[in-house]
Amino acid sequence: MKIKTVFSRLLQPLTIATRNMTHTSSTGSKNFLFRQLFDNTSCTYTYLLGDADNKECILIDPVVEHAKRDFQLVKDLNLNLIYAVNTHMHADHITGSGYLKSLAGCKSIISRNSGAQADIFVDEGDFIRFGDHKLKVFSTPGHTNGCCSFYCQEQEIVFTGDALLIRGCGRTDFQEGDAATLYHSVNDKIFTLPDSTIVYPAHDYHGIMATSVGEEKRLNPRLSKSLKEFVDIMNNLNLSYPKQIAQKVIPKPNTMLAIMILFVKRTFSAIIQEVAKWKNE
Ligand SMILES: [Fe+2]
After folding, report:
1. CA 274 to ligand 1 center in whole angstroms
2. What is the per-residue pLDDT for 1?
3. If you measure from the C-alpha of residue 52 to the centroid of ligand 1, how many angstroms do you get, rounded to a whole number?
4. For residue 143, how far is its CA from the centre of ligand 1 (angstroms)?
5. What span, in angstroms and rounded, lies between the C-alpha atoms of 105 and 75?
6. For residue 140, which of 98, 116, 111, 166 has the smallest C-alpha distance?
7. What are the residues facing 83 on neighbouring strands?
8. CA end-to-end span of the chain, whole Å?
9. Which stretches make up the Metallo-beta-lactamase domain (predicted)?
10. Which residues contact 24 (CB under 8 A, 6 or more apart)?
């Protein structure tokens, strides 16, 4: 069964996002394993893709706070994590790639144009392979220079990172963002895939878990417009900066330090909140 055949089942509350979904495609790709995981803080989706036969799996856009959770899931399913993959350098959360490398011994992957550190760099047209399955790399810059989308033709699914979100797209006002570039990335690449292709984004802030190419071509309030209208919209969003803009996506040698700083910051903030409550009582 292809992922898209169970698409309607995915439009459910986020609390069931980690349920088991193992799919066998009628197009020859059998035992394609898929999980969608969620981070409540940054509303980030992490995807676990695997081959249920040879046990190789990858994680797309892991979040550091959930690295242990994700690795536990990998172990529970008797899988072997070979890659931690990032669609781009994230500003709103710290990637779990470094932590997962220490837990699982996997390799990290990111686009060569990202400027981030990784074990393996990918470019347009490359393939990321796990077991019998593969993702084709599309370079889709505009949100950042190094943004990539990963297309799995056999399952008719695409992981778009922040290039294309559900009824939205990633911001283009920092991190080398460029609205016109993003417009062309989405229209000239993602929107040339079959309309039935299911889109799995890096985030959603409204509880929707997936969309399709045809749906976004028709209904995306930004990207269904002309280039000029899109650029005007993106240049007038007036968004505040993400809380973790100063953090790097691949904190390779400093991973543990970054985790410790994050832990201390959150603990300190919790203490301040408790003290404030006491004062008000
Ligand atoms: Fe982003």
Report:
1. 32
2. 52
3. 30
4. 7
5. 13
6. 111
7. 58, 107
8. 57
9. 43-203
10. 1, 30, 31, 32
